[in-house]
């Protein structure tokens, strides 16, 4: 989560594999706000949604 005025730049995100362990109703998430991300590799869950 970054500022609208000063967004994060050149953030590299790669090979993410997160698992939600909180019960049957939830799921892992990977949100981004005001980030100019460079995505590499595999992403579980989808990154920056």
Concise summary:
This protein is mainly beta and 49 residues long. It has no helices and two strands. It has a two-stranded parallel sheet.
Which residues sit in consecutive blocks of at least 5 with pLDDT less than 50?
Answer: none
**Secondary-structure content class:** mainly beta
Please work out how many helical segments DSSP would assign. 0
Helical fraction equals under 10%
Counting structural domains, the number is: 1
Structure commentary:
It is a single chain. This protein is mainly beta. The chain has one domain (8-44). 0% of the residues lie in helices and 41% in strands. It has no helices and two strands. A two-stranded parallel ribbon has the order 1-2.
Task: Please give the structural blueprint.
Layout (H helix, E strand, L loop, with lengths): L7 E10 L17 E10 L5
Parallel strand pairs: 1-2
List keywords for this structure.
49 residues; mainly beta; two-stranded parallel sheet; 2 strands
